[in-house]
Amino acid sequence: MSTAEMEQLTSGASNRIIPLLKTLRTVLLFVHTFFLSLLLFILPRRRRRVISESLLDAPSSKKRKSAWKREEEDTLRRRALAECYGTGDEHCPYRSATFLFFGGRNNTLFCRSWVPVSGTPRGILIIIHGLNEHSGRYADFARQLTSCNFGVYAMDWIGHGGSDGLHGYVPALDYVVADTVAFLEKIRLENPGVPCFLFGHSTGGAVVLKAAYSPKIEGMVEGIVLTSPALRVKPAHPIVGAVAPIVSLVAPKFQFKGANKRGIPVSRDPAALVAKYSDPLVYTGPIRVRTGYEILRISTHLTRNFKFVSVPFFVLHGTADRVTDPLASQDLYNEASSEFKDIKLYDGFLHDLLFEPEREEIAQDIINWMEKRLRVAVEDVNVT
């Protein structure tokens, strides 16, 4: 695959935010919608009702029902695909399974597990994938973990993979944080006494890090692992950051057409790029307004609060990553108050570390860190 062809295959985090307000037509549409909504609040109730009835007539109601039905049908289609995704060899030394989990808002989330066949696992890693992808992509990583006697569980976010919601739409990343916490509690309850770790990639890394700010979560995990976390994500222009909160309320599901026509490669492995962007469970459409704003919001919050991070963590980042900032990962390491923390920067590597040509070596670095963390935890218990 040529470099030009590789550039057509792009990631789903920060470079999808860049085209906000790219055209005057888009700006005018937002302004028109905003002031129309404002007008409905300002006008007297009687006149407002007349306008509302003229705007929200029967055809509009039918359109909304039709859109909801299409969304539901798409969710069921994606769930069926997720069920068949990456089914392993029946002779492999682990058991894989899929199941449904009900999140904090009673939304149905699609989940996976890979568990060693024999004995109790020495630890469990819970995977929170990145923006626009899904848990099934981490099957090879899970197989490597199970070969070292670690159990693996993974959850598709709302609007991702086989979970409920409009594909690629995240109404609030705090919802994903809450679902992650609830999922962790479920796995711990089902596996009493087994140490747990949280893993997050890219925006999933931001989700895991925010969840770990809670002292409650810090006491539930042995540590967290972050690959290419979405920290210090910035809009292309200050006006984007100023307008994004309003636009995300007025037209949260609006897509920016034409985004990512030429984007940023996320792996140096051409086959990995083709596999990712030909996967029907990976969202490749333009980013939705609310989703983009949520990434900006959580990234800003985390960057301002690095010093409050006290959970044990291991952050990994490629120095050539142009989607998320490796220097932000270095700042997290420098500023965090955690006593047990490590960082590894891979020279020349790109964004999707576990899909780089050296993926097995990177996965082994993660396994080695978890083993080291478990040894230290045992030593601490013996000392006390």
TrEMBL record:
<protein>
    <submittedName>
        <fullName>PREDICTED: monoglyceride lipase</fullName>
    </submittedName>
</protein>
<feature type="domain" description="Serine aminopeptidase S33">
    <location>
        <begin position="120"/>
        <end position="358"/>
    </location>
</feature>
<dbReference type="InterPro" id="IPR022742">
    <property type="entry name" value="Hydrolase_4"/>
</dbReference>
<dbReference type="GO" id="GO:0005783">
    <property type="term" value="C:endoplasmic reticulum"/>
</dbReference>
<keyword id="KW-1133">Transmembrane helix</keyword>
<dbReference type="InterPro" id="IPR029058">
    <property type="entry name" value="AB_hydrolase_fold"/>
</dbReference>
<dbReference type="InterPro" id="IPR051044">
    <property type="entry name" value="MAG_DAG_Lipase"/>
</dbReference>
<keyword id="KW-0812">Transmembrane</keyword>
<keyword id="KW-0472">Membrane</keyword>
<dbReference type="Pfam" id="PF12146">
    <property type="entry name" value="Hydrolase_4"/>
</dbReference>
<dbReference type="GO" id="GO:0005794">
    <property type="term" value="C:Golgi apparatus"/>
</dbReference>
<feature type="transmembrane region" description="Helical">
    <location>
        <begin position="24"/>
        <end position="43"/>
    </location>
</feature>
